[in-house]
Amino acid sequence: MANEKEVTIYDIAKKLKISPATVSRGLHNNPAISKITKKKIFETAEEMGYRTNHFARNLRQQQTKTIGVIMHELNSSFMTSVLAGIEKITTEAGYDIIIAHSSESAKKEAANAKNLFHKRVDGLIASLAVDTADLDHYKSFINKGIPIVFFDRVEQNGNNTVVIIDNAKCGYIATKHLIDQGCKRIAHITSSLTRNVYSERYKGYQQALAENKIKIDESLLIISDLSEKAGIEAAAQILKMKPRPDGIFITNDFVAAVCIRTLKEAGIKIPEDIAIVGFNNDAIGKLIEPALTTINYPGNDMGEIAARNLINHLKGVSNLEQTNTIIVRSDLVIRKSSLKKGVS
Amino acid sequence: MANEKEVTIYDIAKKLKISPATVSRGLHNNPAISKITKKKIFETAEEMGYRTNHFARNLRQQQTKTIGVIMHELNSSFMTSVLAGIEKITTEAGYDIIIAHSSESAKKEAANAKNLFHKRVDGLIASLAVDTADLDHYKSFINKGIPIVFFDRVEQNGNNTVVIIDNAKCGYIATKHLIDQGCKRIAHITSSLTRNVYSERYKGYQQALAENKIKIDESLLIISDLSEKAGIEAAAQILKMKPRPDGIFITNDFVAAVCIRTLKEAGIKIPEDIAIVGFNNDAIGKLIEPALTTINYPGNDMGEIAARNLINHLKGVSNLEQTNTIIVRSDLVIRKSSLKKGVS
DNA sequence: ATGAAAGCGCTAACAG
DNA sequence: CTGTTAGCGCTTTCAT
Asked: Which end of chain B is more exposed for a tag (fewer CB within 10 A), N or C?
């Protein structure tokens, strides 16, 4: 309860009859300070319950030791693992993070960016909302020379630093796998094609079809938000198609799970009637029936890489302006939902 | 790129030929400042690209406007919704949050607490790790009069402020529901009983059995961590029991989903052979087969309530020392996994 | 309605 | 190896 006065380096200095500067240096392990005084300083600090005043320090040093993180959502295991990766690296480097999430709204994203700018973060890690059309709200950072690393949901044609997977390749692999299983009519359920991840995956899908001489049929493309409702509607749409598709590549595991459930309720057999491939390798994929074939996507690594690059830049160890695009590995995880031919 | 100098209130003052004090007051809408100067101040600030230096401000005001959040994990939709609730309220009130998670380790939790203490958070919201045995690492906060609100995983016998659901009642309702479905031998899969949430649910389970004259059989209690592996092992253990249980109350939806999968693989019919009730109402419950009966548990509300109470205390609007325990509503969501008798 | 001045706690340049 | 000093940008008495 006792709201005692905070201990400052002046208090320590007085007690030890040395100068505040010496205390400050000692606390930071400055080699110019003798072992013995350092020891005394640390002991007294501990004993008096001293804690650094980060505000005084930051005010003086003109840096916040804080990095901002803007996420489009944090409801998937993918996003939380990215966050965990970021957190690990930033904490090790002594940085705080301020997390803001846009709930997939470009407007909220802009507000978050503004807020973080005013909070003077030293750097920014961001994943764009699905409807973010331009990067204007990041201009202020760029003008002030505050580094930004984008991950996953990015603007690919700009010259910003981005950490991504090869979405086109993943789309290709997923579709090719369905073709290899004998699918001839492959639908694709995805979200807004203005967002890089979805357009790239779609490109890969198209390429796989083209290479295998399957005509691209636009009526097999279903664009939705990635909600449960959208999954149910997409499944209904699939059911109405004539002839019915025999394979679906779905850009998100959760929606894939919803689709599978809905299709099964309608009497469709998965994978016999329709083979399905998802995306993300969420925990859910192993628990539904049949287990879901999906693209594995290393969230933790992406987070770590994004954070490490940002921090190295901040420290001057490396320079972000040289490394534009970092591509993280990804792979196909084959489970029952796609195996028309049995285990390959 | 241009790393221009930061604009301060002095720059604004100089430009307007008024004093910095007036600028400061104007920026804070102090009524002593005339409408006209205020307007000029705001315009000039905007025009010059002024941003508040929170460090100078906090240094001066001796408060951080930051609250710390310690979570035992953030991998469930329950935890992320709590976080969303906290974020909503704190952001509205102009507070930042620093999020730390302990990965269910008491040691990491203590380290996080220490870190947040040194960061001088104005208040703390925390959920305990499964193996946190005492609250010693929060002593420093209490000594300094820094308010703490615990939620969900709490130490129930202390006199701290806690936001929880009535776990005993939930355990009771879940078990009673199984009994009503005709179950006579009900197993319980849970985690360490030293943690309040689990011990309370167990109490409710026991009470429901006792009230219905079912003998409590300790061999039907399985204690595990809540991993996938643990779920598989628990299911194996269930299969070996003789006679086999006809109902299971599982303290976590994810583990319940794993169990169901494993039991089904062994040829058990759910709910005919074994009825199952989970806990948490995770998204997963609606997607597995059969859909999972579970306890719904309002994460968002818990987060909002915890944050609101903390902030009101900080503002002096209310006092945490008066409100010790806040109980949030919760209810049973009935789905197929428990319906031996068909829809009730 | 506005200004002058002090000080929050720390660090860095300079001096010794 | 250690001390002196100034100042980071803001708020807040006290004056006027």
From this structure: N
Boundaries of domain holding B287? 167-296
Would the CB atoms of A3 and B59 count as touching at under 8 Å?
no
Question: What is the model's pLDDT at position A1?
Answer: 33
Residues B120 and B204 in one domain: no
Q: List chain A residues with CB under 8 Å of B96.
A: 98, 119
CA angle B189-B305-B279, nearest 5°? 15
Q: pLDDT tens for residues B143-175?
A: 888 999 999 999 987 789 999 999 999 999 999
Give this prediction's pTM: 0.88
Residues of A (105-164) placing their beta carbon closer than 7 angstroms to any atom of strand D are none
Token pair 């026991």 is found at: B206
Phi, psi (degrees; rounded to nearest 5) at A69: -125, 120
DSSP, collapsed to helix, strand or coil, labels residue B191 as: coil
Chain A residues whose CB is inside 8 A of the B250 CB are none
CA atoms within 13 A on the CB side of A89: 20
Per the CB < 8 A criterion, the answer to whether B302 and B151 are in contact is: yes
Kindly state whether residues A174 and A284 are assigned to the same domain: yes
Q: Say yes or no: B23 and B103 in one domain.
A: no
Q: How far is the CA of A60 from the C1' of D5 (A)?
A: 15
Same domain for B67 and B149: yes
Q: Is the CB of A29 under 7 A from strand D?
A: no
Q: What is the pLDDT of residue B74?
A: 81
Taking a C-beta distance cutoff of 8 angstroms, is the pair B222, B188 a contact?
yes
Name the residue among A1, A51, A55 with its Cβ closest to that of B59: A55
**Res. A340: pLDDT tops 80:** yes
B103 and B158, same domain (yes or no):
yes
Beta carbons of B288 and A283 less than 8 Å apart: no
User: How many beta-carbon contacts under 8 Å exist across A and B?
Assistant: 102
